[in-house]
Amino acid sequence: MNTKTKIEIKGLSLSELEKYFISIGEKKFRASQVFNWIYNNLATRFEDMGTITKSLRKKLENDFTLESLTLETTQSSNQTKTKKFLYKTKDGHLIETVLIPDAKRNTLCISSQVGCPLDCKFCATGLMGFKRNLTMSEIVDQYLLTASEVGKNVITNIVFMGMGEPLLNFQNTLDALGIFTGRHTNRISRRRITVSTSGIPEKIIALADSNYKVKLALSLHSPFDDVRSKIMPVNSRFPLSDVVDAIRYYGRVTDTRVMFEYTMLKGINDRDEDVKALTKLCRSLNSKLNVIPFNSIAHMSPDGISRELVPTSSEDIKAFVKKLSDNNVIVIVRDTQGDDIAAACGQLATESEK
Fold it and tell me: What is the CATH number of the domain that holds 73?
């Protein structure tokens, strides 16, 4: 093969790589060896794969590429230990990945698309517009390259909560989950992986039927269709009742608790009627509510409704959460981390793509 036709090796499953080795007259166990070097030893060059013969390493070098992304810059928060990584794709797009530290875990927030087509009014990524889906290689490389930077045992959790809607890049997201949870690459437990979605019912059901049993988070942000459609245009296509039915199915099939994500917007979704509707919804299925302070998207110079959004005050958030807790709703408040480097929830957007 010439350079232009090289294949991204991380875009292949174990069985596909086994077929490749058989096709060139090698034993299929070579695939497991290569997987071990890539996903467990974080090899970035074929020449470093010591258990592979020199001639075979040369063959791999001729046929495949090992990295689909390059690290451009990193930023560290002065307020917290949150770290943001800016990666460039081979065709010049930029994506962001964030490592979020906590007392008991270190969570890697990865992207699934360049930009996002859903145009949620409180999200900087939505204001970028949509460029393209990330390949499976590009999704997985965010984990591998970040692990190489911070240490392979540092990352304990993965969340698909970065740029893009993962269920609109369904097959590549599914293939990446296959890598993350595979027996040859099982570095992250399925219970430590969360896929976040704005609500694509058909794909939620398909994810449930995939048997990966990862955690699912729904970007809810309002229990009312009219409000949700105003701040999340996707709701006009997929009404909340259809989404909740799919979420209910997911919880039943996978035996997992769904997380509702709820960004607090003053006068829009922090009213008493919201408390009442949320209580009814959350108590109707196995769930918890993750309350998120609205983080500024001023760095995107928004207009329209996005320009008018105001965060609910911390005092009003506390009162809102207390009312829900008093109604026996499991609710937690997400601490804002990394907003000083535009790495907090809803802030991811790359300069060149604005």
Answer: 3.20.20.70
Is the CB of residue 265 less than 8 Å from the CB of residue 312? yes
Question: Does 145 share its domain with 13?
Answer: no
Say whether 18 is catalytic. Answer: no
162 and 16 in a single domain? The answer is no
Q: Cα–Cα distance between 354 and 301 in angstroms, integer?
A: 9
pTM of the model: 0.91
Total tally of structural domains belonging to the chain: 2
- List the catalytic residue out of 8, 18, 96, 138: 96
Dig out the tokens for 102 from the structure. Answer: 């906590």
Is the domain of 124 the same as that of 217?
Answer: yes
Buried b (16+ CB within 10 A) or exposed e, 248-272: bebbeebebebbbbbbbbeebbbee
| Beta carbons within 10 angstroms of residue 108's beta carbon | 24
Instruction: Select which of 116, 120, 282, 345 is catalytic.
Output: 345
- For CA atoms 51, 54, 55, 58, give the dihedral sign: positive
Residues 29 and 138 in one domain: no
- Pair (252, 132) in one structural domain: yes
348 has pLDDT over 60:
no
Tens of pLDDT, residues 13-32:
999 999 999 999 999 999 99
For this structure, is 345 an active site residue? yes
Examine the domain organization and report whether 200 and 239 are in the same domain: yes
Helices (H), the chain: 14-23, 29-35, 54-63, 124-128, 136-150, 170-181, 201-209, 225-231, 234-237, 240-254, 272-282, 304-308, 314-326
Closest CA to 169 of 134, 195, 141, 142: 134
List, for residues 288-330, the tens digit of each pLDDT value. Answer: 999 999 887 776 666 778 888 899 999 999 999 999 999 999 9
Residues 74, 62: Cα–Cα separation, whole Å:
31
Domain around 59:
3-65
Any idea what the CATH number is for the domain that residue 43 is in?
1.10.150.530
